Amino acid sequence: MKHSSFFVFAALIVIIETKKNDTNSGSIFNSRLASNCAELNCNNGRCIESGQGPQCICDEGFFGTICDQQGADFYHRTHLMPGLADPDILAVNDDLFFLTGTSNALDLPFFQSTDLITFHLKIIYNPSVTDPQYNYCFIWAPDLSQRGTGYDLYFSAQRVLKGAACPTNGQDVTTFFARAVDQNLIFDKPTLVDFGNNAPKGRIAAGCNAEGCLKTVRIDSAVVGPENDRWFFYTWFSGGNNIAAFSFSSPTNLVANAGPASFSIPATDEKINEAPEVFWYRGQYYFFISTAFFDSQYAMQYVMAPTIADLTRRRAVRSHSVAQRNSAGRLVQSHGHNSIVMRRGQVFNVFHQGIFDSAGRLIGRDTFKQRIAFRPDGSLQTLNTIDIRWNQLPLHQYSIDVVRKDGSTIGPCISVNRIGATLATTYTGLCPDGNNILLDKGDISAFRLFYSMTQVWKDFVEAKYDGVSDQLAFYLPGGITKQIVLRWNERMTGTTYSLDVRRQDGTWVSPCVGDIVIGSRIEYVFDGNCRQANSFIEPRAINYIRICSAINNDWPRAVCGGVPYDGIAIHVSVTIP
To answer: Where is the EGF-like domain positioned along the sequence (predicted)?
Structure first.
């Protein structure tokens, strides 16, 4: 027994030493022990049986024996399908996906993939062929969902009698429904949507149903939620494009989610809130909308809430992308009408990307995929923007270079002529002073901030970049922090917020910036100006920051969260319990 104990002990030492010297030894050890795929956990990959035993085939962005390490391309944006707009993607399982979208406006292509990278045409649905009575045109924005063992398809179109011109005057696009019984996706004859008495329904003619515009289903439908709580989202027209939703179990109880008919929306939205998309992740629902005209500054925004019914513009509306403009102010790229898909716990955003000519006119749309990254509070890192800030060196001016992952640089990307002596800029995925080169966040390894008093640009600091974050800070030697970007978690609908600060001497300024200024926003740039106290406090004179919240203006029962402050940090996050 003593000898066998010694051998066990010696074997343990060998294993421990091996693990010390090889960070991937656990992966190798596990894969060698497995005799078949049932015994091998491939993490972010799938297992195949081979002559050498079970092997892991890693998903995009991962590598390693058991696919447990992130690759350099983890946040790389992937081009999925040229010429496809308004994409909708459905995961049947982790290794089977269906993709559809707007193509030639006369039919709907369906593509199939097993890896979320390569898609092959599976079938084309032409409702004009399936329907013996009607022809269809302006076929847009399909939504594919699984119900039971079959598949539901909703799409937008005009419909006319056989032989009639399509499109035709006096009509507007509306929504139709078709059903396929299995994964062959052979859809039957479409029908105009009608959800019952006093409930929303489609309308062939222009204008609104007798029940009102809110109950007239026009375009961009989306079926969301689990099978026992399915919801129908759609876009309706009144003073622009608006979004509403209802539960299939109660179609007469409508929720107005977004749009100019129900909410005050910014001018940049161009009176367009459309293309709803909803997904659930770790206790939160996310509601995407696309804003502005499709051939203009089309962009994605989103709302977070704990329930589907709460997904409205009454909550904080957060930017996810901005359309990119070149140094002359002309559009070069836009993003929108997205669809979310998950694979083995990874979340991907599938969207169309607008392509513009040299005059800023839309000439095409392609479908792309981008991995989504979550902040600690559950909110999303943006698709293509980075808020870049730095502390101040008096009398200096600044310029920014970008370092690609291959080590090459674009410099200047954003020049002193654009930045001057200011202490912040926003990178949007384009270098306006670097020949308008487009460079996605996922392809960047670092940023360099040059600083000078004499226009001689030799001194710089470099900040490594992770390829996804939407905030980046430079800390110049001897610099003074002049601004603090504050973020905090959102509480229930109807909550407003205020900012308190504590000086180094222990005295409070409360409120420093009140809810009359901040309102329901969940981000604020503090520049030292305490507006409610009519005083100015340098960030370096502060040692504690507190965000307070009140529901329906009930400030006597405010709930607050705070963090110590070192007088230096530029980006600060606060959690309100």
So the answer is: 33-68
